[in-house]
Amino acid sequence: MSLIDRAEARRKSALAAMDPSEQAALGQYFTPYQAALIIAGLPRIPQAETIRLLDPGAGSGMLTAALADRVRAECPDATIDVIAVEVDKSLRPDLAETLSDIEALGNVKTRLVGEDFLTWALRSEDRFDLIIQNPPYAKLQTGSARQNLLRMAGIDVPNIYAAFLALGARLLAHNGQQVAITPRSWMNGTYYSRFRREFVDTVGIDGIHTFESRSKVFGDTGVLQEAIVVSATRGQRPDKVQVFTSHDHRDDASVRSVAYNDVVTADFIHVPATEKDAEAVAWMTQHAHHTLADLGVTVSTGRVVDFRSRDMLHQERTEGAWPMVSASHIRNGQTSHPVGAKKPEWFHAAPEVASKLLVPAGAYVVIKRFSAKEERRRVSAGVWNSDDAVAFDNKLNYIHHNGAGLELPIARGLAVFLNSSRLDNYFRVFSGHTQVNATDLRQMRFPSLEQLRLLALVDTTSQDTIDAAVENVMNAVEIAA
User: DSSP string of 44-91?
Assistant: First the structure.
């Protein structure tokens, strides 16, 4: 068996022996054989006499083995110095065996550090040429010792995997390269905005590998999170980013070279895996320039959480009840109520409770937060307009003006734009989520108020009509609002 085959056998053995609840608590998702080869294949190998490697949270050593094997093949005369950090005592025997195998390659020195990577990294003075990692995925508890320790070091992140990325960037030597497989969630949204800015200030992203399949990269571990591989170099910002795309970790990847500024922006990181993706980003950047805040409106999440409000929700209308609007009421860009839905369609509560959960009469844009697998659109919006107050389900976002309704033409124009193919194509590049978060909508760009008023005149029953109108209005010279 080869070095990689033996490491894979240890990974499977370690995975089978683990308690699933303990694995989830530690956020451990071991890297499969083919995924390890993809990750190890992404960085450049430095031409140096000594090459220093680091694997934070090394597990059974799969990534270390894949990278060391490649370094030895491409730089047969170099000395390889490896440090593998692993806090889980149960994994260290397997990791030690893998490190022993790596030393057998010749001219390799390894060291196993049996500590929590976060605390070790904060005091380490070592610097590395290559860092390869599949960091643990687990939320940082507010006020926890770990979170406080990281904040004292200037690292403010909601998840441990982002802390691993931040610390890895700090441990790179000049021109050193880090490659990591992580969820895509850090690339947009307010939760990771500070981390994202500091990360791209420290390193230049030079390679991205994205997978079309969400579920197969870590198929034997039960992970459904969208995984993405990113390589970045400390002290360098390339002109181009190499973007690789494959269906999953077993398929050959296509590759395209994308201008750095089309991937990394001040607000978020795009992943234009195809020419269609790149065109979607370029079109939106050229034509849409206004945030919701610029337009004087904002977006919130519906106030009614069904399982907390069961006694207030009714299938049939009762005296004094208000409409209860949920995702089932948005169909083909229209909002209708009632529709005979399975979920309750009416809301009734005492005045003091209702005042906290109802939204005043008026016009609103309602957007589904979650899309079903069979739906062809990621973003689906409609206009709600009534003379009575209304209850919006928590699975909806709604656009409003200071808590009240919008001008009806503005609401209609926003719904047309949100239901356009241009917006849907862009959102798929912008966001790695299947859900549409309010924070995503706040960061996105929209037409001007005048353009929205023009879009309000469109027949919304036809997708072709919507798309043609968006092209015509947005391609015209923008009129100042």
Answer: PPP--SEEEEEEET-TTSHHHHHHHHHHHHH-TTSEEEEEEE---GGG
Cα–Cα dist 250/218, whole Å: 11
Q: What is the dihedral of CA 183, 189, 191, 194, to 10 degrees?
A: 100
Examine the pLDDT at 131 and tell me if it is beyond 90. yes
Per residue, what are the HEC states of 120-170?
HHHHCCCCEEEEEECCCCCECCCCCHHHHHHHHCCCCCCEHHHHHHHHHHH
Q: What is the DSSP string of 154-218?
A: T---SBHHHHHHHHHHHTEEEEEEEEEEEEGGGGSSGGGHHHHHHHHHHEEEEEEEEES-SSSTT
Q: Which residues contact 375 (CB under 8 A, 6 or more apart)?
A: none
User: pLDDT, tens digit, for every residue of 60-86?
Assistant: 999 999 999 999 999 999 999 999 999
Q: What is the CATH number of domain 3-273?
A: 3.40.50.150
Give residue limits of the domains in the chain.
3-273, 298-475
Q: How far is CA 284 from the centre of its chain?
A: 20
CATH homologous superfamily, domain 298-475: DNA methylase specificity domains (3.90.220.20)
Write the pLDDT tens digit of every residue in 82-118. Answer: 999 999 999 999 999 999 999 999 999 999 999 999 9
Say how many CA atoms lie within 13 Å of 121 toward its Cβ: 28
* Tokens, residue 382: 């409609």
Supply the DSSP string of 380-411, one letter for each residue. -EEEEEESS-EEEBTTEEEEEBTTBPBPHHHH
The angle at the Cα of 411, spanning 410 to 415, to the nearest 5 degrees, equals 115
CA distance 32 to 276: 30
d(C-alpha 253, C-alpha 38), whole Å = 10
In whole angstroms, what is the distance from residue 301 CA to residue 203 CA? 35
| Strand 254-259 relative to strand 298-301, pairing | unpaired
What pLDDT was estimated at residue 224? 44
Give me the residue label for tokens 């395209």: 256
Same topology between domain 3-273 and domain 298-475 = no
**Residue whose structure tokens are 């070279």:** 257
Q: Three-class SS of residue 109?
A: strand
